[in-house]
Amino acid sequence: MRLLARLVSWAGALLLGGVTGVASVVVHQRWWGLVLAVLAVLAVTAALSRGGARLAFAGAWSAVVVRASVPRPEGDYLVPGNVQGYALLLVVPVVLLMAILTFRASRPTPPAPSGL
Fold first, then answer.
1. How far apart are the C-alpha atoms of 12 and 116, rounded to whole Å?
2. What are the pLDDT tens digits along the chain (116 aa)?
3. pLDDT given at position 77
4. Which residues, including other chains, have CB under 8 Å from residue 23's CB and lie 6 or more apart?
5. Could you give the C-alpha distances from 3 to 8, 51, 54, 96, in angstroms and in order?
6. Taking the CB of residue 46, how many other CB atoms lie within 10 A of it?
7. In the chain, where the domains are located
8. Under a CB-based contact definition with an 8 Å cutoff, are residues 100 and 51 in contact?
């Protein structure tokens, strides 16, 4: 049951990261949208518990933003090479490092010493 709850939380974080990434790409061209996107992703990343959920959120958000910066078949970009686009792309390694460096695998607690 605990594993199922963990998998559901990871799936929810993955979905939330994807949706937040799409929203970030959509609004980043306006100054207030860029500020909102950066603050939102950093706040959610910090608010999620350390572990798989935080890593799933950061990975999904980063994948969406990086994918949006790749040229489309029409030749245009969703994340253009301007100040706002580079600022958004600069947040990608920050969020990934924040998730990776604070990752802690769940370890079973050692048994209490007997005889004390």
1. 43
2. 788 888 898 899 999 999 999 999 999 999 999 999 999 999 999 998 888 899 999 999 999 999 999 888 887 788 888 899 999 999 999 999 999 998 876 566 677 777 65
3. 80
4. 37, 40
5. 9, 13, 16, 24
6. 10
7. 21-101
8. no
